[in-house]
Amino acid sequence: MTIDALIEPSAHGLYCPAGDFYIDPWRPVERAVVTHAHADHARTGSQHYWAAVDGESLLRHRLGQDISMTPLDYGETVHFGPISVSLHPAGHVLGSAQVRVSDGNRVWVVSGDYKRDPDPTCQPFEPVACDTFITEATFALPAYRWPPMQEVINELMQWWQANAQAGRSSVLLCYALGKAQRVLASLPAPLPGPVYLHGAVAPLTTLYREAGVAMAPAEPVSQATKEEDFSTSLIIAPPSAAGTPWLQRFADPSTAFASGWMRIRGNRRRRGHDRGFVISDHVDWPTLLQTIQQTGAEQVYTTHGRAEELVRYLREQGLNAAPFATRYGEEDE
Amino acid sequence: MRTFVELIAQLDRARGTNDKVHCLVSYFRAAPAADAAWAVYFLSGRRIKRLLGPAQLKEWLAQASELPLWLVEETHAHVGDLAETVALLLDPKPNNSPALSEGLSHWVDTRVLGLRDLDDTNRQQAVVHAWQALDAWSRFVYTKLLTGALRIGVSQTLVERALAEATEQPRAVIAHRLMGQWEPTPDFFSSLFEARSAEEMASQPYPFFLAHPIKTDPAAELEAINDWQIEWKWDGIRAQLLCRQGARHLWSRGEQMIDTAFPELLEAAQHLPPGTVFDGEILAWRDGVMPFAALQRRLGRKQVSAKLRAETPVRLLIYDLLELHGQDLRSAPLSERRVQLEALLKDCELPLALSPLASAKSWKALHQLRDESRSRGVEGLMLKRKDSVYGTGRPRGPWWKWKVEPLTIDAVLVYAAPGRGRRANLYTDYSFAVPDGDQWVPIAKAYSGLTDKEIRRLDRWIRAHTIQRYGPVRAVEPEQVFELAFEGIAPSNRHKSGLALRFPRIVRWREDIAVTDADTLAQAKALLND
């Protein structure tokens, strides 16, 4: 690492020495700029947080209502000594942000997690011109390209419809923050039956509704009537619910998993679910390359995921690229 | 081709065997015989001679996808399946290619086998052109066919069940018809629907009757020892020798005709009466049984040189008589079959021989006899009920194999490679080494024995402790000790360690001991003399 790096990896997280603050630190620090509310990026214990206002309620839900926090509008600038910082939409989940860091001469951008596919639950990703781009690489292999969301939602509706006709409940396992709400917001009326939410999904969905995100009606499973046998229902639950007794209340459940990993047959088969839907809140290979190009960055650092392969590929394309060791991605999709 | 591709996609999605059988039955009922014949061929695990190697396909894929070859290789290692890698790396297409209306057999004839007549340039052009016109699933199936085999989690048993249902023929008849050699022609498929013919039997072996392993003490489980015929469990190739209508054939349990690999056995069978079928074990034998590795040199040969015949002489030790004078004896009790077998082989000459019986007065005495197994070069004992018929499958009860405890060593993980299929993008193919002075000498590869949970944990450890990468293979820090079990050990000049282990597998992850406690090469070599 050169001495004048605007951002460098450290034992606590990505660090800006000139501004003395951290981005998505995994240990408690004094000043933490947080890209989004997923647990591997937003961790408890820091003295003060800066994050996008759209995600404030999610962050407080995750980290505690009483955290000390400065909510920022997208594009609003704050100063850390000589360094100016602004947040820009990352399109990952509600309130997710890229962090633009500048010392007046150079611009570095930390992507956080991001995607380019349309998502009705959050502001779309906005390319930010920069000299150095620090990007996630969760799905940075060319096998990962996302089919159009509409196509996947059609498949999902067919699966649900067929289950409902056969008197089977449809259990969709997906990440509780972001993915669940994105699916819920994408379901076209009329629905084959009611939608119910797992206890880990329901409160987050309420926060999304309070933030003004329009989604299909859904209720917590705990509030279903005694007569409900769930035989025409779609139940949205986190992956950790798979194989637990919680599933036993549903009629002959058909389970499906929604994740970018479902692109690979081996992953689908290993999970042992009836279906795998390719829905990801991360960039796929083509849009990752497209984004790097759009930023105009000459230097690219990669964080979690297939960092090594991406670095080698970018170098062959004439870019200056290197991996950053981080602890992100430990709780992924 | 479209209906076949749809079948494969349905099978991939199907959960549970009944669901799969249901998909297969619908396909077999509706598909033209020419296509269905090829479907049976590939789905039952048969393969055509591979025309294109994976290296070549990957090169073409790299060109067609405009990706560097190393990235295609990395992606292949991650995806765990070459055909799927092809399907995923090329641009998505709708499944409306006119070529998809051509049947499966037409595809195989023109676009797979037809490649034989083309030079490399034209082959590449034909393959890449087909790839680019197809949707992902069709591309996947087509590339599977190019690589010769379609392994997609359908077993021969499932195909048999589905065919039995579709043809309304007994399952055993279908099983019998799928054994051995046949060509995937429309006539073959149609003939599956016909009632059984007499001459059909002539070239076909019987389905092998298999023994269940016994894990507990037989004294507790099997009652009177006198009810049991006791044989040595040979470590060779299980085979049926057929002498019918002037022809003689040798079939392995893998349903392969192995006539050409063991010509001396067929020569020796010339003197047997027509209409005879034996079940026995082929062994390499010189002053006693030789290690399995010696026998392996004979396998898969189209021709066996006089030199090889002399170096690894073989014999067939016969332990069962399934047919005599053209009469199927399988429903006669074993004791009766044995009497007839002994009478028939009374004057027989090597390399055919009667497999001798072992005997013991009590289970306790038999325990002691079994302890001699390793020094006798056998794997243990076979226990067969004297009144047992020669059945099908592997039921519990009539026949048991009682193997000696395997040998074990504690070895250290040194390399890992990603698995395939269900184990794609997990490091599951392990190489183990033992120390020899300050060097690590690889001694075995093992793929099985860990739980899914352990595999995932070890995968994470491997990724975090890689010291070097060779393509998809990672060299890791020599820190993790595993107990490996194996059935036998033999000297080998093909391996750096000078040792070849038979059927190595992982017994447990020895996190309780340090690397310094692992067995040394000298200790492993000492097992040779045990």
Task: Summarize the structure in words.
The complex is a heterodimer of chains A (333) and B (530). Chain A is globular. The longest helix of chain A has 17 residues. By secondary structure, chain A is α/β, with parallel strands linked by helices. Chain A folds into 2 domains: 178 residues, Ribonuclease Z/Hydroxyacylglutathione hydrolase-like (Metallo-beta-lactamase, Chain A, 4-Layer Sandwich); 129 residues, Rossmann fold. In chain B, the strands form 4 sheets. In chain B, strands 12, 13, 14, 15, 16, 17 and 20 form a 7-stranded antiparallel sheet that branches. In chain B, strands 3, 4, 5, 6, 7 and 8 form a 6-stranded mixed sheet that branches. At the A-B interface, helix 5 and helix 7 of A face helix 5 and helix 6 of B.
Short description:
The complex is a heterodimer of chains A (333) and B (530). Chain A is α/β, with parallel strands linked by helices and 333 residues long.
Write the layout of secondary structure elements.
The complex is a heterodimer of chains A (333) and B (530).
Chain A: E1 8-9, E2 14-16, E3 21-23, E4 31-33, E5 48-52, H1 56-63, E6 69-72, E7 77-80, E8 83-89, E9 97-102, E10 107-110, E11 132-137, H2 149-165, E12 170-173, H3 179-186, E13 195-197, H4 202-210, E14 219-220, E15 234-237, E16 254-258, H5 265-271, E17 275-277, H6 285-295, E18 299-305, H7 307-316, E19 320-323
Parallel strand pairs in A: 3-4, 4-5, 5-6, 10-11, 11-18, 12-15, 12-16, 13-14, 13-15, 16-17, 18-19
Antiparallel strand pairs in A: 1-2, 2-3, 7-8, 8-9, 9-10
Chain B: H1 2-13, H2 17-30, H3 33-43, H4 54-65, H5 69-79, H6 82-89, H7 104-112, H8 120-133, H9 136-146, H10 156-167, H11 171-178, H12 186-191, E1 212-213, H13 218-222, E2 228-233, E3 237-244, E4 247-252, H14 263-268, E5 276-284, H15 292-296, H16 306-311, E6 314-324, E7 327-328, H17 334-344, E8 352-354, E9 357-358, H18 363-371, H19 373-376, E10 380-385, E11 399-403, E12 407-418, E13 427-436, E14 439-446, H20 452-464, E15 466-470, E16 473-476, E17 481-486, E18 488-491, E19 499-502, E20 505-509, H21 521-526
Parallel strand pairs in B: 1-11, 6-8
Antiparallel strand pairs in B: 2-9, 2-10, 3-4, 3-5, 5-6, 6-7, 10-11, 12-13, 12-16, 12-17, 13-14, 15-16, 17-20, 18-19
Helix pairs in contact in B: 1-2, 2-10, 3-7, 4-5, 5-6, 6-9, 10-11
